[in-house]
Every structure is written in structure tokens, then in C-alpha cells.
Amino acid sequence: MRRISTSFLQPGMQLAQSVFAADGRVLLARGQVLRESYIERLRQLGVWSVYIVDPRFPDLEVESIISEQTRVQAIKTIRTVCHNVLAGNASGVPTLKEVVELLIDDLAKNPRLMINVLDIRTHDDYTFAHSVNVCSFSLLVGMSMGLHNGVLRELGVGALMHDLGKTLIPSEILNKPGPLTPEEYECVKRHSTDGFNILRRQDEISLLSAHVAFQHHERQDGTGYPRGLEGDDVHLYARIVSVADVYDALASDRSYRARFLPHEAAEWLMANSGLMFDAEVVRLFLQKVAFYPVGSMVRLSNGFTGVVVDINQPMTTRPIIRLLTDPNGQAVDTLEEIDLVKHTDLLIVDVIHE
Alpha-carbon torsion 62, 258, 314, 317, what sign? Predict the structure, then answer.
């Protein structure tokens, strides 16, 4: 598979990953052959890019860290629970723990799986799909730390509900394409406190889980909000979720900016490790991130282009590349592959993300 902008889609191309609606429904399923009407609808829904099947790589398969079934169920559950909690009905809260258990089970099945491919979602479901990703990423870090299941469940519930307060922000502010005014920014910042105040009143949610919503925008150097906490004054759960939250936000298409490529988002985290973010959390998180996901088209420093076909662990910045064209743009006929761990003289100089 490879990711391509919807502006470059053509009828007859085949989806390699499903597109989800805000309520968790599959809008277009993996394997769907695209028609012009489908392509136009994707653009109308604000889907800026999708994964397509590339017939040049019939053997290239990418596994997500969680199954499609688990992802759909998780999005549906968190959407329902958020709406119910805001309406004063906490009857659905126990199902959050069930979802966290499903996520833990999926992640534990193959601990070597990388954050290798991101889900494709429409503009209107960002908060819920984002929360599922943040929970999955946070659980991966927690597992790497050796946290036991009881702690993982508490961390997972906090991660799933970390952005509850955002559901109170007017959509015209949340999805504003331009810069926020100071008043609008203060409105956005209130989501941390608003979410905490709602969650701490829920008997089924621990106070530590609620503090994830309260503290996930705090920073190690004290530059965060709402209280400007520093260092270990920020709870471990929140330190973990803040890293997962920022990575997924950077790697997602938003109304006000295009997404960062995975390696750009990872490098941004590295640049702020030990400053804004807990250095150990960043280190453990980036061990699970494919800087150049399988299916990425890249250009090498010797002028050859190719597609990433496998990730080297723990050297995730040095993948295995199957060559496509030579420096003159001529197709490479063989199935020649270059392992960048073994070819230290070569670098990836560009990602051909369209």
C-alpha cells in the first residue's frame, strides 16, 4: 500500500485501508474499488489522503497495532460514553474498561508490531478516533514500562477520555481553519479543566484517570496548562498521554494545517524530549514508531527511489527499501532491496508522500 492525496485519486484505484465515519461506521471498506463519486465524496468529507493498493507490490502487507473490529467498537463506545456523561448519564462508563481490555489484548498479541500506519478519518470524527489512537499508543508505552494490567486499565481509561472537555468547545472554534483569537484559545484551553471536573464526579472513573484529562497539556518545563506544573509534579499517566496525544495530532490532517509526515512528527518529539516531554517516555514511544512506515515512497541520497518494505528494529530510522527507479528516473527491473542498516553511506533525503 501507499498513501496518496485524495486530489490525486483516480477511478479504478483500490483502497488498502478502510475509511471510518464519526460513529465508527466504515464509510468505504478496505478493498473497495474507487469510483468518481466515491472520490468526490471523500473530498467533501475532508478526507485529505487515503491508502491505496499498489499493484507493483502485491506482497506488501501492513498490520495495524489494533484490529479494524476493535477500532470500530472503540470509536462507537467512546462517542456514546462521552455523550452520555455530558448528559449526566454514567451508565455506559463501565464499557470503557471493556474497550481498554480489548485494546490491551490486541496490543499484546504481537508486541513487535510498530505504529506503522495511521487510520484515515473524516474531519468530524477527529476527537473520537484521536482518543482511540492516543489510548493505543499510551498502552504501548505502559507495556514497555512493565506496568501491570490494573495500572494499564487505569491509564487506558484516562487516555480514552482525555479530550472529553473538547466536546464542549463550539465546532466553529475547534475546526477553525485560521489562527485562534486570544479569547478562542482560552476557550480551547478550558477543555482540560472542564473534562476533569466532569470525570472526577464519575464513581466508575478513578481520580488518577480523571487527572489525565486535567494534566495532558502540562509540560515538563512548566510551559503547559492549566496549572504550569513541572517535572514529576505531572502524573506519569499524563506524561505518557501527552506524548501520544501530540504525536497523533501532528500526524493527522487538521482543518488549519496539513499533517506532519511520521518522521517529521517523531523528530519534533525528539527535539522536545527532556524539555516539554518526559525523555524516557519519548524514548520508549519512539521505539514503537516506524519513522518511515511500510508503503512509504522515498528518495535516497544516491538518487534512487523506492518503497519501504520492512522496518528494522530497533533501528527504526533505517528501513529496508525496494528500489523503483534509478537516478535517471528509469525503472529498476529487479526486486532489488537495500537494507539501510547495512548501507550506512545511504540516507533517506525525501519522502514522496503523494
Answer: positive
